[in-house]
Amino acid sequence: MEGHAISLYTYDCRVVPGLLQTEAYARAVSLSVPPLPEEAVLNERVAARLARQELLSVRRTPLCSFSFIIEEAVLERRTGGTEVTSELLDHLLDVDERHWNVEVQVMPLRRPTHAGLDGPIALLETPDNHWFAYSEGQKNGRLISDPKEISVLHQRYAKLRSQALTPEDSSSLLKRMRGSL
Predict the structure, then answer these.
(1) Are 84 and 28 in contact, with CB atoms under 8 Å apart?
(2) Interval 35-66: pLDDT, tens
(3) Helices 82-98, 23-30: inter-axial angle, 10-degree rounding
(4) CATH of domain 2-179
(5) What is the pTM of this model?
(6) CA 150, CA 169: separation in Å to the nearest integer?
(7) What is the DSSP string of the chain?
């Protein structure tokens, strides 16, 4: 469905979304969660994740609009170490600067109210303007098509966008984080 989407909104509080991951970060994420995959499985996972990123650059009509909200804590965690995080921050800044249809926002560490406490949210709009959501947890995932459930998730995502740093402030924070490594 991602390949045909006209809007894709993602909030993640555990990892950087797959569409924004570097190869090293994707490997580090896969190697962090037991059981550890065999090398061939790891390579397959990483290749699939990186292949999905072509969606950010695909020039088609209508062009897909991407919105990502990432918890600052995810970036501060430094999954994979300082070098992996440095490369990841550079990549996030590059994606943000190169793609006018991609918006990256960071949810600051200190936020007294937070609409994302129930976990990650992924919302997708099809070319015929139908919305779907995806919810993911430990060893499972669920595609959501019920309009009432999707409405609630839209409300939460809208609130998250207002609670996160602006795209400009997010970019400034990413640059400061990169400079402090």
Answers:
(1) yes
(2) 999 999 999 999 999 998 888 877 777 789 99
(3) 130
(4) 3.30.870
(5) 0.92
(6) 29
(7) -GGG-SEEEEEESSS--GGG--HHHHHHHHTTSSSPPPHHHHHHHHHHHHHHGGGGT---SSPPEEEEEEEHHHHHTTTT-HHHHHHHHHHHHHHHHH-TTEEEEEE-S--SS-TTTT--EEEEE-TTS-EEEEEEETTEEEEE--HHHHHHHHHHHHHHHHHSPPHHHHHHHHHHHHHT-
